[in-house]
Amino acid sequence: MVQVDFHFNAPDKWPYVCRLLRKISGQGKRVAVCGPEEALHLLQQSLWNLNPTDFVTHCWSNDDLKVVQQSSIILASDWASFLALSQLNVALNLNADAPTNLGQLTRLVEVVGPEESDKVSARARWKHYTQLGFTINRYDLSAQTV
Fold it and tell me: What is the C-alpha separation between 73 and 33, in angstroms, rounded?
């Protein structure tokens, strides 16, 4: 069964996503991050701008296989890119729509910013995941940080 973690009210989405990815990778987990190309490039830039001591290994799914195998965060604009990869523990969805196929993944993370459009699409994804019978956890970030 898939567990979905919704992180709502992320006041500054990219720094929060970076901290969250750093935390997850620090637990020894590998993360598949899927989203629009523009969003992934923003995320990649944010990851490169982390403090050198906070750096997390990351790459694109179509990079050299050795790089992909040694990176804790894999970026791609389509979910199919992740299906052939092994040992991915967590997926982070940056798309407005729910993923169509999670393969062997058992945990999916959604980060929702304060923008109304982000909230509207998150509600639709929540409903979709509920209909699929996924376990959903809700984290309200309005009063906490990672």
Answer: 7
DSSP symbols for 24-41? HHHTT--EEEE--HHHHH
What are the φ and ψ backbone dihedral angles of 12, each rounded to 5 degrees? -130, 90
Q: Residue 45 CA to chain centroid, in angstroms? A: 15
Looking at residue 66, what is its pLDDT?
94
Report the domain count for the chain.
1
CA atoms within 13 Å, Cβ hemisphere of 63:
15
- Domain housing 130: 3-143
Q: Is 91 helix (H, G, I), strand (E, B) or coil?
A: strand
Residues of the chain with pLDDT under 50: 145-146
Assess contact for 141 and 10: CB atoms under 8 A: yes
**pTM, rounded to two decimals:** 0.91
Q: Are 74 and 32 in contact (CB under 8 A)?
A: yes
CATH code (residue 109): 3.40.50.10110
Which parts of the chain fold into alpha helices (H)? Answer: 13-26, 37-48, 65-70, 80-83, 116-131
State residue 144's pLDDT score. Answer: 63
Sign for the CA dihedral angle at 117, 140, 59, 107 comes to negative
